[in-house]
From TrEMBL, chains A, B, C, D:
Name of the protein in question: Adenylosuccinate lyase
EC number: 4.3.2.2
InterPro entries assigned to the protein according to its UniProt record, in alphabetical order: AdenyloSucc_lyase_C, Fumarase/histidase_N, Fumarate_lyase_CS, Fumarate_lyase_fam, Fumarate_lyase_N, L-Aspartase-like, Pur_lyase
CDD domains (alphabetical): Adenylsuccinate_lyase_1
Lyase as UniProt keyword: yes
Biological process annotations from GO: 'de novo' AMP biosynthetic process; 'de novo' IMP biosynthetic process
Entry's family note: Belongs to the lyase 1 family. Adenylosuccinate lyase subfamily.
One GO cellular component, as annotated: cytosol
Gene3D superfamilies: Fumarase/aspartase (C-terminal domain), Fumarase/aspartase (Central domain), Fumarase/aspartase (N-terminal domain)
Pathways per UniProt: Purine metabolism; IMP biosynthesis via de novo pathway; 5-amino-1-(5-phospho-D-ribosyl)imidazole-4-carboxamide from 5-amino-1-(5-phospho-D-ribosyl)imidazole-4-carboxylate: step 2/2; Purine metabolism; AMP biosynthesis via de novo pathway; AMP from IMP: step 2/2
Span of domain Adenylosuccinate lyase C-terminal: 352-432
Length: 435, 435, 435, 435
């Protein structure tokens, strides 16, 4: 996570002030529950809220205390005591630092997930808008980078929309994975604290209680969370690479929007580089890279070791901030993508109709030609086209042997793009529920 | 995937015979649908089933044909024609090879998922059985590898059971991700084939139609599938490492079952190595390794490139066979784990009661000692224990200043293991729905 | 590693027969050294060689024994005793299984490295041949997929040649990393065996003694080995992707060789897919995937745990066989690559000379035009070209204001490709030592 | 890279001020070379040095310009012109931004490598010091976490020293990989700039010219660099995990140094957690995670795409800063490690001499006992020891059947630790060149 690839809303989740605020809320809610149980005085819990609720925590002060105590939660509690006063001694009773740290991390991750889900919604909105705009814009479909059969640019975008619908569902599931709370003590036995405290804090923080925590919340949850982010990042890359291909000089079917002020030159009008989507390709690599350490974090020793902590201090912000930035950038790229239908048509026409050769072949056999003859007839008309010596349809029309099987109208129909577009509505309805 | 780490049922999913059988079924179901549409004669479809249903496909023959055609589906169809006869020419009409290949892969992956889910069920059964067996077997909980507070061995296992319940749910979700079928033609436009064929094949093969395929089924689905396997493998590693730690010479709280015939020596009775769980640690690394190539497979070029294919030919079997083997091995390890409650107790007692020091500290302050005094009192009795010069409880009982705050009964109670076990039922009910 | 992507020579390194042969050699050389030390009778060592040297080991028999002993080295030694007779009891004295296993693995890896180095040599030979062939074949250089400035196809290939020269050096270094031998006993202290045995075996097996082994040879060596393979595989991908781009329908500057028999259709002459290089892209993902488990293998517990073993049983063959196959395929692709200089020229000309706009701009300022004027002049001639309304050079020649600064000859010179090719010799000399 | 895990010297390499300083030097040296060639006036080059050498670049100002130009190098050059004056127009002539960016990155990476090498030297110094200190401190060697045979703590450390000697050599090689300079223009043809400029800049910046650059320096170099860092990080993890194991409550053969002020409690003297080495385990995961994106960066499109850039902006600092921090922390941990030889001895004695059972077995056969008898004799004395009913040596001495083969002195000798330590000198000499 670096400022260049950060957006403020997501970055703020990982700022110390936010963390301390969440820690405070966890402690204060726990105090409420403890007061209700009669473990601590109700007035103490009330005072914690009264003094702490509006407080701004002094990050520098807490850092300074931590340099002595070498313990972040103790440093925070020490500072909290400065704010709350003597009643602060009732805070954190029966709790262990990880109760606060792990519950806080999960609050942060669920908030991050909410932003990412909204980001995907923006990508989806852009894709849907542009898909309908180009619902029937013919373009060549390519397999292996080679022209295959016609499709529409809208269908291409609909495919990516379906993919991002899946991305959304995955993020929702990933959010649920990490939306748990643990207030269970040193090894998770609730020896020092009643399970009702956990239930109360969970409910107030929008989480559910972790069934079994062992000082820590089990890290297979976080592994699943970050793995999901890696999948979504790969989907970002998939669409980014499509744009990069479309913007190639030889293809030029679409271009990233180029802002007016931007240093792109009309002295070199061809030199508009797809730098945004190239950047997305790189960012996807990074989000993907955070998956493996998250997986390696699962196998902690016994009831916990703390090896996961340094990893999470890094990938928590790195993965969420980077993916948020990437999704937002992607939404913008799609929303403002400059599309060149004329170039799509030009590319479609580029092979002089050869993309229809398979239809011709099939039709000839259906009309009675042997496979061998059909193949020979198509071949002898295809080769000149391939050498740039004519147009496929014209040549076929002029081939008497072909014409013995196919009328002019039949040949024309085989070159009709409508044949390829007849199920666009079906596809759109599947994705968007409307066509 | 190597024979040493393979089990027949999972391995057979990836055998050529199985693959050809699935291809046949896809083709035959598609023929039925085409016949219903009137595209091909009903008798042709019937003949395909009649001749092909019971046939054993000649793998060597297909391989030989492929060496000429350099195309696996064409080689299969050629061989199928040898079996079916002239009606075979109606097979595969309007379809593209990927329709068969991708739908087949997803059938294989869903079958693999079914086995993996059953494997997890076996792990869960073993965990539940042993958890209840050791529901109240006291053992020391460890954080950072250091003794923390008591828990029970059953609670430890319950935690892993909860984790594998999550693993199960993840595998069910992963199965759904890949349970799709595509029969949509060269670039997914259904130009040559009606969508109803896809619907029919999907229904018969236990899949749902892929909303938008582009010659291929989008690979974010498979990325999610293999990422999930990586998470589950990491969970296997987590439990494997627990067993390895418990079997250490200095700990010896549990041991892998050692079969009678096995070359383990009673001349060196200590030399029983946790080789099964060490092996699981390694296998987890492998299953995890297959996640990244699956993620890299997502960004195919345009409507498809075929870079994913070689990856899937390898990780399809490798990841599923290895994880199947690992889960089955894990279930056996847990089911037959030799547990040493006496050693658990010995380790619990090892520190002469120091693991209770925090309770003493807390109680002293609750009884009116200042924090400083309480700390001093605990410390002066803890240090001799640490040096091996006595038992903590005995020393405390003999310390007049301590006794000014705490009676003999109170001190005894603070050393009572029951304090730590009082919520075992809560935890068990959360996980198993019963205690 | 699957047969489809295997070549016999590399695969044979990993066959049981090869492994047992190497085990035999290690044991027999060790026996020689032990005999020389007087630890075992000289006749025993001689007998081992006499009986074992020409023997074919019965893999099925050894497997059967292993099923009982659950120990592969013991199974082998039992079988060896069947071959050698009573003198076999002098074999393996003072040694530990890992002495044999680890030294054998390193013999296998060094042999694998030798093949990989030869593979790279073949890639280099193909690159050099084709580079010189196309030393001065002009082609457009592209940054961001967008036309930049002219270069030659030979220069492109020279760049990859330089990269594979580095790959070669890296493989040589990786080979040295793993070319070590350990015969040091249960925890590496030489308690039961003299270091001179290790020295002798090392020398005979073409290895050097491992400075400190701890039952096992330290796995940072193997991590470095597999990491290097991952880098080389990424270089394969780099060149593979170049070919894939060049073969795109819109670019078509080169094509993979298409064998006569191959099912590629002249009825669809455009439909030649770069399947070999797409395949290489996938294979590169796999070889890269084996890097992380090799890195995770480094942190074994204490003097060794055996978690690395299952990983190596898989990635040993998988990584080396796959990379060998990939390099050999790449050498063939380059050697037989069908290059289309005419299409390269056509693409170069595609933008009507706009790729020279920067030279014009620079020259105008050098001849006295202000930056603003120069830019305006270039722009007003570039835009019509970009819209397809003319050729840049022609328009510039017709622009009086431009002509006030530049003569016809000067303009022509600015469009001279020779300007871009003047240092081709320098580059070739750097790479090939000749031009 | 986060402040918590950063050290200033390494972090400063990646600060904007450092980057701009390096950019300036590259530009100024290039200007010198251009002046020597007569391309620009010598006075201009001199002025650039005169004004720029001592200048502090205004980072905020450059950032502000970049927000308009969206181009970092142009923003820098604009600011440089503000400092240098009109002569600045001669700067950067014939160069492309990547000439500056890539050469700068390699300067940064070589400086980072220098620090990392010095870090490894500190680790090596600590290991050597402690290895000699504990050269003959007996300790149990463990395979599979199970007691195997005696070794010394010094030998353990010597093994890690040998590993870090390899780490050092790898870092030196990695440094060489990235110590190259490219000043070759838009597609690497030197069209606009003479190769002598590159040679001059390379020499002045301590680099060598890149044989073939293609606007960018080929990324296989950087892949190798970051892969090497991943290997070294895994070696850090290896040693870190050793310390974590030794500090376990049940083992307690060593402990991380615990600073006086540190909040570790003598009320709970056992609760000293190996948090530094747990932290190193996590940091190793991160450095390893950066390997794959670096590998994925190799396959840029054609002469370059810019997908690598975002990756490098992140992993450049992240990998080097984190590894630097980890190595420095590791050196401190080893240097100040608290070692408990008495506990090592206690653990050695823990199994009542059973670790010597294999020696007894061997000796009995050497003295004429059949394998079966020897095994039976060892077994019947081992089992009581294993059950805690006696000491192995005592029991053997009392076993008449054993004594028929072995005298008291012979038995005593078989329990002599010296047997295991006799080659410690050999090992030390191999690693340290002295014993």
């Amino acid at each position: 996570m670096i400022p260049r690839y950060s957006r403020p809303q997501m970055a703020s989740i990982w700022e110390p002030q936010t963390r301390f605020r969440i820690w405070f809320e966890i402690e204060a809610h726990a105090a409420d529950a403890q007061a209700k149980l009669g473990v601590i005085p109700a007035e103490a819990a009330a005072k914690v809220w009264e003094k702490g609720q509006g407080a701004v925590f002094d990050v520098a002060r807490i850092d300074k205390i931590e340099r002595t105590t070498k313990h972040d939660v103790i440093a925070f509690l020490t500072h909290l005591a400065e704010i709350v006063g003597p009643e602060a001694r009732f805070v954190h009773q029966g709790m262990t630092s990880s109760d606060v740290l792990d519950t806080c991390l999960n609050v942060q991750l669920t908030r991050a997930a909410d932003i990412l889900i909204a980001d995907v919604d923006a990508v989806l909105a852009a894709l849907e808008k542009r898909a309908f705009e180009h619902r029937l814009t013919p373009t060549i479909g390519r397999s292996h980078g080679i022209h295959a059969e016609p499709t529409t640019f809208g269908v291409k975008l609909a495919g990516h929309a379906a993919a991002f619908q899946r991305a959304r569902a995955r993020l929702v599931a990933a959010r649920t994975e990490v939306a748990t709370c643990a207030i269970s003590g040193a090894v998770g036995t609730f020896a020092q604290i009643d399970p009702s405290v956990e239930a109360h804090v969970a409910e107030r923080m929008g989480l559910s209680p972790e069934p079994v925590s062992t000082q820590v919340i089990p890290r297979d949850r976080h592994a699943m969370f970050f793995a999901t982010l890696g999948v979504v990042a790969s989907q970002v890359e998939n669409l980014a690479i499509e744009v990069r291909h479309l913007q190639r000089t030889e293809v030029l079917e679409a271009e990233e929007f180029f802002s007016e002020g931007q240093k792109g030159s009309s002295a070199m009008p061809h030199k508009r580089n797809p730098v945004l989507t190239e950047n997305l390709t790189g960012l996807a690599r990074m989000v993907r890279a955070y998956v493996t350490p998250a997986l390696e974090n699962v196998a902690l020793w016994h009831e916990r070791d703390i090896s996961h902590s340094s990893v999470e201090r890094m990938i928590g912000p790195d993965a969420t901030v980077t993916l948020d930035f990437a999704l937002a950038r992607l939404a913008g790229v799609i929303d403002k993508l400059v599309v060149y239908p004329a170039n799509m048509q030009k590319n479609l026409d580029r092979l002089g109709g050869l993309v229809h050769s398979q239809r011709i072949l099939l039709k000839l056999t259906q009309k009675g030609a042997s496979r061998e003859d059909a193949y020979r007839l198509v071949q002898r008309n295809a080769m000149p086209v391939w050498r740039g010596e004519g147009d496929f349809q014209t040549l076929l029309l002029a081939d008497a042997e072909v014409r013995a099987f196919l009328s002019e109208a039949e040949i024309a129909e085989l070159f009709d793009l409508g044949f390829h577009l007849k199920h666009v509505d079906t596809i759109f309805r599947r994705v968007f529920g409307r066509a």
